[in-house]
Write a structure and sequence with these properties.
Blueprint: H1 2-24, H2 28-39, H3 43-55, E1 59-60, H4 71-84, E2 87-92, E3 95-100, H5 102-122
Antiparallel strand pairs: 1-3, 2-3
Helix pairs in contact: 2-4
């Protein structure tokens, strides 16, 4: 049993150390964009974002009814989106009300605008 716990600690250390060294070689902007991209990399999170766009305002508690997922799963996806800075969540009574965070989406939009500019200028120069 002791050997097993030691092995788990070693694996956790390797994972943490690898994560730190891998991201340390990139700029803060690159790391931040990667976090944002990862946050929108799940269909449930895209569905949550689309629902927030459709509603057009902050929503409190009715997101669970819009997705074919259990409440704890939806809560986890909301947490990931909030941690990435793509949504905001504020307590109103016993519920948390969520809305889109414009700042997070501006960062994603800026990256894609740079890509679009690149493709517009490189059409004739690319293979």
């Amino acid at each position: 049993m002791c050997y097993f716990k030691f092995y788990i600690v070693i694996l956790q250390y390797r994972y943490i150390a690898m994560g730190i060294t891998k991201t340390a070689h990139f700029t803060d902007q690159q790391n931040e964009l990667a976090i944002l991209a990862k946050a929108i990399g799940h269909p449930a999170r895209i569905a949550i974002i689309e629902h927030l766009i459709k509603v057009g305002s902050c929503i409190c508690g009715d997101i669970v009814n819009e997705l074919p997922l259990a409440q704890p799963t939806v809560s986890q996806h909301l947490k990931e989106l909030k941690n990435a800075g793509l949504i905001k969540g504020n307590f109103e009574g016993n519920a948390i009300c969520y809305c889109l965070n414009e700042e997070g989406f501006n960062k994603i939009s800026s990256f894609f605008q740079h890509l679009n500019h690149y493709f517009e200028n490189q059409k004739k120069q690319c293979c």
